[in-house]
Amino acid sequence: MKLLPINILLTLATCRLTSSETVGPTLMPLTSASALPTNFKRVHLTGKNKVENVELLNPANLSLECIWTGNQNKQPNITGFWRKGGEEIQDSRVPVAPENQQYRLQRVFNIVSEEHLGNYTCVFDNEAELDFILAVPRIGEKREKPIVSYVGDFVVLTCKMEETKPVPRTWNWFKTNGTDKEQLFEAQRYDITVIGHKTKLKVKDVSEADSGVYHCAAVYNISASTSKLHLKVITIWEPLKPFLGILVEVVILVTAILIYERSHSKKKEAEANGLNADPKNTQPQGEDEESTSVRQRKT
């Protein structure tokens, strides 16, 4: 009976220690493959190569089927297999026999995250290939030239998804910071607007430090589609630099011409003053002839 209080104290201490441990967040179980909807994509391949784009918005079991008409020499059996990102998928090789003069190759892929997207290829005996490119809807409107703004002004960056594409679940904005992307949020200098297929980022009181690459992301349940825009912030004197350079060249040229004209004018004036100062050149021609005739009569 003396041991009973001690056992009770030990039990209480153990319970206290157990309840004081930090409990990690409870992870939600991943959706099983059987619970996902199944999407079907069937493509006919008549030549040797073909590319098919497949848009996905949500996780799904994707059934890909390739139908190849074959070549002139149809074999009773050929080997078909699948590749993901250029690498052969393990245990995907199967014998394929012709059905109604066509070869069929089918496989179901569990597409649940962004890493499962990409390029899937069905191969028929290394003679024909069909590429399925799995991706979320892409942002069609892309700008190659940089957007120019001035120091102290504001600028609005716009991203737009085509109206025929599904509306994104949300939009995000990022700015390249070295090798990383820094997400931008509503703040004193940033205003983010989202209206269906379109989003806008307004940057107020811009400085040269705001120059760089900005990324917009249309977010869907399985992945995001991104596009980038280049922003260049300059001072108000930047556009005037070429004109100032030309103006300087014109001023230098005009100054050189004026200096040349002035020196040439002074030279002519000096030559003219030199001729007027020579007495031999100042005697009239008539007097010279009269003196000569007088000397001849005296002789």
Automatic annotation (TrEMBL):
Any one Pfam family match given in the protein's UniProt record, by short name: I-set
GO biological process: one example: cell-cell adhesion
Residues in Ig-like domain copies: 25-133, 137-227
PROSITE patterns the UniProt entry points to: IG_LIKE
Entry keyword annotation includes Transmembrane helix: yes
Listed GO MF terms: cell adhesion molecule binding
Membrane topology (UniProt): Single-pass type I membrane protein
Gene Ontology cellular-component annotations: cell-cell junction; plasma membrane
Name recorded for this polypeptide: Ig-like domain-containing protein
Organism annotation: Poecilia mexicana
